[in-house]
Design brief:
By secondary structure, this protein is α/β, with parallel strands linked by helices. The protein has a single domain, classed as 3-Layer(aba) Sandwich (Rossmann fold), CATH 3.40.50. The chain has six helices and seven strands. The chain has a five-stranded parallel sheet, sandwiched between helices. Strands 5-6 form a two-stranded antiparallel ribbon. The longest helix is centred in the C-terminal third of the chain and has 21 residues. The protein is globular.
């Protein structure tokens, strides 16, 4: 992905040097990594149709080493890493990931938790802990959003800003 971005920068320099060409500059589509609760949660299926941004969904029926390596690459290369936590969460690795990413890559880290998922609900003490995680993500410079509509709006705004910038060129 980095090589493609370098090619885009190079093409911009070439087109900028030849002002009489009215060529729309090649842009990379922004992409979000859809991390967080799996375990049969349907939040990804609810969010995907609302997105204008490309996405990588790491949830697969069978995990292989190749799939795991691709997941690591996508998480590293995506413009945003979204972590949606629902009551169907059984482990805490996604919590560790979102806090780690908010420290290392705050501008690309997006956190959201959903109080209910199907018939499952967080307890009041779990909600209190997740609110603390959200505040930590924000203090680290990341983004904490309260529902999937806010997540879609935030991510789509990044695409809208790019399109607006291109139309001004």
């Amino acid at each position: 992905m980095k090589n493609i971005q370098l090619v885009c920068v190079y093409l911009r320099m070439i087109f900028a040097a030849v002002p009489h060409y009215n060529i729309k500059v090649l842009e990379m589509n922004k992409k979000v990594f859809l991390g967080g609760t799996a375990n049969g949660s349907l939040w990804r299926e609810i969010l995907k149709p609302k997105l204008k941004i490309d996405y990588f969904d790491p949830v697969l029926p069978h995990r292989t080493e190749e799939a795991y390596q691709r997941e690591l690459k996508e998480r590293r290369d995506c413009d945003y890493c979204l972590y949606v936590i629902t009551p169907k969460m059984t482990g805490c690795y996604s919590i560790a990931e979102v806090v780690d990413d908010s420290n290392k890559h705050p501008d690309k880290t997006v956190f959201c938790f959903i109080d209910t998922d199907d018939m499952a609900e967080f307890s009041p003490s779990q909600v209190k802990s997740l609110v603390a995680v959200g505040r930590m993500v924000e203090r680290n410079g990341g983004h904490w959003l309260s529902n999937l509509d806010e997540v879609a709006d935030f991510l789509n705004h990044s695409v809208d800003n790019k399109d607006h910038k291109e139309s001004l060129e």
